[in-house]
Amino acid sequence: MQVSDLFIYPLKSARGIAISSATIDAFGLAGDRRAMLVDPSGRFITQRELQDIARIDIQPAPSYLRLKMEGKADIIVPPPHPDNRMDVVVWKSAVNASVADDATNTALSGWLGREVKMVFFDRLATRIASPEWAGDGTPVTFSDGYQILITTTGSLKALNANLAAHGEGSVGMERFRPNIVIDCDEEWPEDRWAAIEIGGIRLDLVKPCARCIMTTQDQQTGSRDVPNPMPAMGRVRMSADRRVPGPLFGWNVVPRGEGTVKVGDTVTVVEERPEGWAFKRR
Question: If both were cysteines, with which of 43, 65, 129, 200 could 140 make a disulfide (CB 3.0 to 4.6 Å apart)?
Fold first, then answer.
């Protein structure tokens, strides 16, 4: 097995960026989900409620960020001032984040048709992943809960086969917004992996990823008038474990080391979970 694709999502819920190599540290992939949109109260905003976020391209540069949206003038985002801060909430986590300049926030609010602010997970921000699953003291940025998400090509093939068997079309891997995609022929092998190693870095698979309405949206346009993977996941991937309810696809991963991962790197299973994960069967 080997790494077939790597992705980062610098702005949470906006378009991803395919990369050929990634530096990994305790937070996950460098540059991943370091920025986020919030409402005036500080509550995080994603494609779940504002589908047009899927239309935002983000292009990182050494001294600024460039935001692009079709039909709109580019927004150049300077580094935020570390003293311009606000408390924000992502799911149940409170984070003290730095805030983009007023011009950026005004322009983004115009793009999206409602008042938003762009905030940053900078060196002064802190957030810890759930110790129940990730262990004590593992830091995380603005991701939904964990440092890295992995998926496999064999599992996507199996999901699409079920979709096709019911005349429901097919979906691409981008619907699941992974960080690391592993090329393999077997379907759902990740359910049995407790830990893998890539580039000398141990990656613990700590919790399967419950999926939501974002998987039903085109990741370029935000449209939901596209093939929907949820029915197939409901048929073959509905969790029977009350700790993680709902349809599952992909696994949340905690890195236990630092280094570099590249497309083409060999993936080695170093610890297995023989019992896999419990699913409801229809």
Answer: 129
Would you put residue 79 in left (φ > 0), alpha (ψ -120 to 50) or beta? beta
- Between CA 139 and CA 78 the distance in angstroms is 25
| Whole-Å CA distances, 208 to 170, 236, 245 | 22, 14, 10
Strand partners for 248: 210
* DSSP β-ladder status, 180-183 and 148-152: parallel
Cβ-count burial 242-264 (b if 16+ within 10 Å, e if not): eebeebbbbbbbbbeeeeebebe
Which among 260, 259, 63, 279 has a CA at the least distance from the CA of 155?
279
Cβ neighbours for 24, distance < 8 A, ≥ 6 positions apart: 30, 148, 199, 201, 255, 257, 258, 259, 260, 261
The span from the CA of 268 to the CA of 120, in Å, is 34
Instruction: Write out pLDDT tens, residues 44-87.
Output: 999 999 999 999 999 998 889 999 999 999 999 999 999 999 99
Closest alpha carbon to 192 in 244, 133, 269, 121: 269
Whether this prediction's pTM lies above 0.85 is answered by: yes
